[in-house]
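Re: the request from the purification team.
They wanted to know what the chain is likely to look like in 3D before they choose a buffer screen. I agreed to run a prediction and write the result into the notebook, where they can find it.
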Amino acid sequence: HYTIKLSDLERYVLIHLDGSRTLEQLVDLAGEAVASGGLQMSGATPSRSELTSLIATALQRLAAHALLEA
């Protein structure tokens, strides 16, 4: 066992992974959270395309650390 440090985005995505949401729906949720201030992102507010890429990368990292279940 080991500790995994998650970014705010990774933590946000993980909390919302219940098997009922598509990538697009996760992007919508995260975009709304960024806009409302519920999810802090460093730097400028990411575009939808950038957010999609960030979430896809977060999903890959979560899977690599066996935090996802099929």
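For the purification team: The chain has a mean pLDDT of 93.
Please add any questions underneath this entry.
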